[in-house]
Amino acid sequence: MLNGKKIVVIMPAYNAEKTLEQTYSEICFSMVDEVILADDYSYDKTKDIAKNLNITTIQHSSNKGYGANQKSCYKAALQSGADIVIMLHPDYQYTPKLVPAIASMMAYEQYDAVIASRMLSNSALRGGMPLYKFVANKFLTAFENLLLGEKLSEYHTGFRGFTRKVLETLPLEECDNDFIFDNEMLALIFYYKFKVGEISCPTKYFPEASSINLVRSIKYGLGVLRVSVLYAFAKLGFYKSKIFKKEAKKLNLSEKLDYYYKHNS
User: Fold this and answer.
1) What angle do CA 106, 92, 200 make, to 5 degrees?
2) Any residues with CB less than 8 A from the CB of 21 and at least 6 apart, and which?
3) What is the widest separation between alpha-carbon atoms in the chain?
4) Mode of pairing for the β-strands spanning 56-59 and 196-200
5) DSSP code of 94?
6) φ and ψ at 30, to 5 degrees?
7) Could you tell me which residues are beta bridge partners of residue 36?
8) Which of 57, 78, 93, 134 could form a disulfide bond with 209, CB atoms 3.0-4.6 angstroms apart?
9) Are 21 and 37 in contact (CB under 8 A)?
10) Which of 214, 228, 203, 217 is nearest to 142 (CA)?
11) Can you give the pLDDT of all 265 residues of the chain as single tens digits?
């Protein structure tokens, strides 16, 4: 709890048995009220370790994808009464020690969303980020800033936090079920005119840390370009895509996701 607001950490997990316990052990539980993990049908012992740690655990009956895994996490967090939700990957690529800093930027109502950037302090390469990913990150971020009219240092971090209002407002059920979900979500946050803050964050690349391969990275990059163009078209009034619509739906996130799963199961 911070400033009277319930803080929930979510972990979208897939084959994280080697790093989950270490990640969990560094969470500041004097501030964090609950941790929720959604296991996207891992073939290792992720689910068992999570339950042994007394983490609230959701188990998918099939592999639904990174975006769908986040949707499950956000729905569960809102149903638990969360005021602030922070996504922390259980692969220990990002330090859990920054959760209080991220939460405080929203708990005291300075920002609606906060991302932990690997680019603000040039820590990405020092942390082992492959050069091609670093260059791609810089290029895609510049392209997105141009088309979205923003000034973020990066759009591609997996360590981020959101207020309840953000999660209840965005049409997340319309977003992709794979990795482009992250990018669509940030673009939607700007589309709905929420305030986004950044905090510098170190990163670590090592064999156990999850990372998409070159082919999927290319697919992700093309998806980012598409999201940026669709955003620009929507803002200019040329074309309204399924996520960038003229008006926000009146349903809250739990109702939207119930509708989504009912029609996509």
Assistant:
1) 45
2) 49, 53
3) 52
4) unpaired
5) B
6) -75, -15
7) 10, 56
8) 93
9) no
10) 228
11) 999 999 999 999 999 999 999 999 999 999 999 999 999 999 999 999 999 999 999 999 999 999 999 999 999 999 999 999 999 999 999 999 999 999 999 999 999 999 999 998 877 888 888 888 899 999 999 999 999 999 999 999 999 999 999 999 999 999 999 999 999 999 999 999 999 999 999 988 877 666 677 788 899 999 999 999 999 999 998 888 889 985 544 445 555 555 445 444 4
Residue type, 120: L
Structure token pair of residue 127: 């942390």
| Residue found under tokens 């979208």 | 12
- Per residue, the 3-state secondary structure of 36-76, as one string, reads EEEECCCCCCHHHHHHHCCCEEEECCCCCCHHHHHHHHHHH
Give the span between the Cα atoms of 194 and 15, in whole angstroms.
Answer: 33
Select from 200, 194, 158 the least CA-distant residue to 70: 158
Sign of CA dihedral 23, 28, 29, 31: negative
Return the domain boundaries, the chain. 7-264
